[in-house]
Amino acid sequence: MKAELFLRPAALGDGGALCAFLIALGTNNDHPGVLPMRRVPTAAGQDEWIQGYLDGGGHVLLLFDADRVLGCAELTVGKAPYRHHCAALGVSLLKEARGQGHGTTMMKALQAWAERQDGLERIQLEVFHTNPGAIRLYERLGYVHEGRRVGAIKHEGESIDMIQMSLAL
Q: Which pLDDT score is estimated for 2?
C-alpha cells in the first residue's frame, strides 16, 4: 500500500530530504523547466536555505511521500525595500508526482500564504516556453503574461525563451 502524500512548510532538518530531491530532479533531466545542476547541494546547505525563509525571506512548501520529498514550491519575498511588495515563485515536482494536481495544490497554498502577508502585492515568475503544462497551470490560477525574454537560456544548443508572468494579490 502506497503512503499518503502530504504537504507542509519546510522546517530545519528537512535539508537532507530536500537535497535528495534536488539531486533526483537535476539528474533525471526529464523536466522542461530544470537545468542541470552546477554543483551538488548538501543537506547543511539546504537547511541554511530553509533558515533564510524561516527568517522572513518568504515561504517554502514540501510535498512528501513518507520521508521523501517529491515536490518543492517557494515564494521568495523581495529583499530590497523597493521589492518588498513582490514575491518570486518557484515550483518543481519529480516526474512521478506530476499531472496529479499537486502543483495546483502547492500553488494555491502559496497564494493563500501570500494573501495573508501585509504589503505583498504581487507574485511573479518566469517559466521556460518549453514547459506548456506549467504555463497552462499558471494561466488557470489567474497569472497573466507580462513579457518574453527571447533566447534567454541556451541549453544543449537549444534557445529557450523565458515567459514572464504575474498575479496581482
A: 53
